[in-house]
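Postdoc handover notes: sequence design on the structure in folder B. Input C-alpha cells:
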C-alpha cells in the first residue's frame, strides 16, 4: 500500500494558530497547478511499482480549488501511476462546500471529506480568524450527508481561551448527534511565527491553559467512548472502523509521496521535503527540478520513529516485530526504559504489545520521547 499527498498552499485568510505553509493570494494558482502536475510526472518512479491506494489533498485549503482543477491533478496521477484508490480525501472549509460542489466532488471520485469546523460557536471562530461561521458549519455537514458522503471526518479544536466545559461538550455532542463516523480533535498549541504567538507576547490574548486542555481531552475521550467511538490514535476517533486510511498508513510506516511546496515523502529509508516557497517551487518545476531536502534515516531514527508512530495508536508497538527489525538487545533496552511508565500504568504490556494507557494519552509525546534511543544506547 502506498499513498499520494497533494499540498495545496492557498487559503482565503490566515487562521491565528496555523503554521502550515500557505498563501492568502491566489495569483499564482494556475502556475502552481502546472507545477504540481509536473512534479507528479517527474516523481512517478519514487514509489516503485506500488499501487496507490490513498490520495489526500491537504494544505492550506484544497477546497478553494474548482472541481475541474482538482480533476486535472487526479487525471495526472491516474495517467502516471498504478492506482487502486480506496480512499480519496479532500480537506475542506465549510464555506467552500456548496450543494453543487459536493455533488461534483463525488462525481470525480472524492469519497471522503475532512471538514475543518473547529467549533460551533461564532465567538471561537472569530477568535481563531476562521472564514466560516457556525451556521455555515452546520449547513455544510448536513449537505455533505445528503450528498452521500458517508465517510466524513470533522475537526475540532479544544483549549482555546474562554472555552467552557459546557461549550466543549456541546461541540462534541453536535458531531455525535450527526453520527459523524470520524472525529479529529486537537489541543490548541502556540506555534512559532504565528499570529497567536504574537498576540500572546503582546498580551492581546491568553495563552492556552494545559490544565483546562487536559480536562477537555478527558471529556472528549469519555463522551466519544460512551457513544461507541474507538480512540484509535491520540487525536483521532472512529465509529464502525472508519479509520483514516491515508493517515493510518503514516503511523504504520507505509510509503507515500508528497507533492507540492512543503510536502513530505517517505520511501522506507529516507525522508524528503519540498521547499516551503511557492515562487521557488514554481520556478524550479519549470526547469523540471524538484526543490527538496533529504534525510537518510539511521537505524536509531528508524527505531525511534517506530516507537513514536506505534505508541500513538491503539494497535501499539508489537515487540516481536521490533525485535526482528532492531535486534533483541535493543528490545531489552526499550523495556528497561519503559519500566518506570509501566509501573506508573502510563504504559501497558499485553500479549507482547506495548500500548499507551488511556489516562496517559494526553501526555503521550513526553512519555514516548523518554523511550527514544540515542546513538550511544542503540546497539547496531
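Designed sequence:
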Amino acid at each position: 500500500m502506498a499513498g499520494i499527498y497533494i499540498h495545496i498552499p492557498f487559503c482565503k485568510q490566515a487562521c491565528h494558530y496555523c503554521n502550515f505553509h500557505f498563501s492568502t493570494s491566489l495569483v499564482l494558482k494556475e502556475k502552481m497547478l502546472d507545477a504540481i502536475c509536473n512534479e507528479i510526472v517527474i516523481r512517478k518512479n519514487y514509489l516503485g511499482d506500488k499501487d496507490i491506494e490513498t490520495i489526500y489533498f491537504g494544505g492550506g485549503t484544497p477546497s478553494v480549488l474548482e472541481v475541474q482543477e482538482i480533476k486535472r491533478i487526479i487525471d495526472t496521477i491516474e495517467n502516471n501511476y498504478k492506482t487502486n484508490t480506496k480512499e480519496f480525501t479532500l480537506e475542506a472549509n465549510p464555506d467552500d462546500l456548496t450543494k453543487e460542489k459536493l455533488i461534483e466532488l463525488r462525481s470525480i471520485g472524492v469519497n471522503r471529506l475532512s471538514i475543518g469546523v473547529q467549533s460551533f460557536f461564532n465567538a471561537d471562530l472569530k477568535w481563531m480568524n476562521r472564514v466560516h461561521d457556525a451556521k455555515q458549519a452546520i449547513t455544510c455537514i448536513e449537505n455533505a450527508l445528503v450528498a452521500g458522503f458517508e465517510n466524513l471526518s470533522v475537526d475540532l479544536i479544544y483549549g482555546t481561551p474562554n472555552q467552557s466545559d459546557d461549550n466543549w461538550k456541546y461541540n462534541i455532542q453536535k458531531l455525535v448527534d450527526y453520527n459523524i463516523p470520524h472525529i479529529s480533535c486537537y489541543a490548541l498549541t502556540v506555534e512559532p511565527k504565528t499570529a497567536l504567538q504574537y498576540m500572546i507576547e503582546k498580551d492581546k490574548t491568553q495563552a492556552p491553559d494545559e490544565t483546562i486542555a487536559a480536562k477537555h481531552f478527558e471529556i472528549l475521550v469519555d463522551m466519544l467512548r460512551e457513544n461507541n467511538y474507538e480512540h484509535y490514535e491520540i487525536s483521532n476517533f472512529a465509529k464502525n472502523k472508519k479509520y483514516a486510511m491515508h493517515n493510518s498508513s503514516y503511523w504504520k510506516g507505509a510509503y507515500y509521496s508528497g507533492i507540492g511546496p512543503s510536502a513530505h515523502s517517505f520511501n522506507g529509508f529516507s525522508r524528503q521535503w519540498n521547499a516551503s516557497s511557492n515562487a521557488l517551487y514554481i520556478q524550479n518545476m519549470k526547469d523540471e527540478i524538484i526543490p527538496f531536502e533529504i534525510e537518510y534515516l539511521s537505524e536509531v531514527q528508524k527505531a525511534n520513529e517506530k516507537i513514536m508512530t506505534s505508541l500513538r495508536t491503539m494497535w501499539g508497538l508489537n515487540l516481536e516485530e521490533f525485535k526482528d527489525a532492531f535486534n533483541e538487545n535493543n528490545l531489552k533496552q526499550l523495556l528497561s526504559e519503559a519500566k518506570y511508565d509501566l509501573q506508573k500504568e502510563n504504559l501497558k504490556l499485553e500479549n507482547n504489545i506495548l500500548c499507551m494507557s488511556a489516562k496517559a494519552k494526553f501526555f503521550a509525546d513526553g512519555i514516548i520521547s523518554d523511550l527514544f534511543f540515542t546513538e550511544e544506547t542503540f546497539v547496531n
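Context for whoever picks this up: The chain has two domains: 2-250, 299-369. Don't rerun without checking with the PI first.
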